[in-house]
Amino acid sequence: MFDVIAFDADDTLWHNESIFTMTQQKFREMLSSHGPEVVDQTLSSTQLKNLKHFGYGIKGFILSMIETSIELTGGNVSGKEIQQVLDFGQEMLAAPIELMPHVHEVVEELSKNFNLLLITKGDLIDQEIKIARSGLADYFAAVEIVSDKTIETYKKILTQHKIDVSRFMMVGNSMRSDIVPIVQIGGHAVHIPYSSTWEHEQDHPYVDKNHYSELKHMGMLPKLIKEKK
Questions:
Q1: Which are the contacts of 215, defined by CB distance < 8 A and separation ≥ 6?
Q2: In b/e form, how buried is each residue of 111-129, taking b as 16+ CB within 10 angstroms?
Q3: Which of 43, 44, 54, 83 fits 60 for a cystine, CB–CB 3.0-4.6 Å?
Q4: pLDDT of 74-97, one tens digit each?
């Protein structure tokens, strides 16, 4: 039934959001005099505003933290505090890649019978490094690093790789990025929720649950694919 199976990367193949969550906690502590809710709200609105300028990923997050620091302190943020934010970012970039349970064996198994794609959004250099360090790169026929995942983005990828959408499956943790656009263009989508998801990724059009599959973990994917044959 499927010619190509594509995977999201962050929080589908390996942990990512947890790194942002831990860093945001450190950022709250740095600006503790302003209160955690104010820090979170200001950082969130700054990130969303900056998406069109910096895109997704750690580097945009760092710049948004610096801008939030300037805003909340009325421009009185110290050089030491800015350095602290930069240190947060470097720690994030150097964090080890921790694969999700069952990922390596499932990707290896599926690569024997299907062409696999990796479709991820974020900073090009950061994503390339993570993919290389993950130990999974050789299992994918192609890797697409995109600025955002929209209907147009997926259509372009499918056209480029000459893939029939009816024989395409996308696997990911984000309804907004990995599931909704695929359902809307007539493809097959598999949602594997992560323990926590950025609020922005939770904002998406409604999609009937009959139009996609949901699994508790990656280890259940091979069985689902066999059932759909």
A1: 190, 191, 192, 221, 224
A2: beebbbbbbbbbbeebbee
A3: 54
A4: 999 999 999 999 999 999 999 999
Nearest alpha-carbon partner for 213 in 192, 184, 186: 192
3-class DSSP assignment, residue 6: strand
How many Å apart are CA 225 and CA 168, to the nearest integer? 12
> Which amino acid would we find at residue 31?
L
Average pLDDT value for residue range 90-113 = 96
The answer to whether 161 touches 137, Cβ cutoff 8 Å, is: no
Distance CA 205, CA 106 (A): 30
Least confident of 21-25, 26-30, 50-54, 197-201: 197-201
Phi-psi domain of 170 (left: phi exceeds 0; alpha: psi -120 through 50; beta: other): beta
Confidence band, pLDDT 50/70/90 cuts, at residue 199: low
List the domains of the chain with CATH numbers.
4-15+98-228 (3.40.50.1000), 17-94 (1.10.150.240)
| 30-34: Cβ within 8 A, 24+ apart | 30/69, 30/81, 30/84, 30/85, 31/68, 31/69, 31/72, 31/73, 34/72
Task: Please tell me the number of Cα atoms within 13 Å of 174 on its side-chain side.
Answer: 26
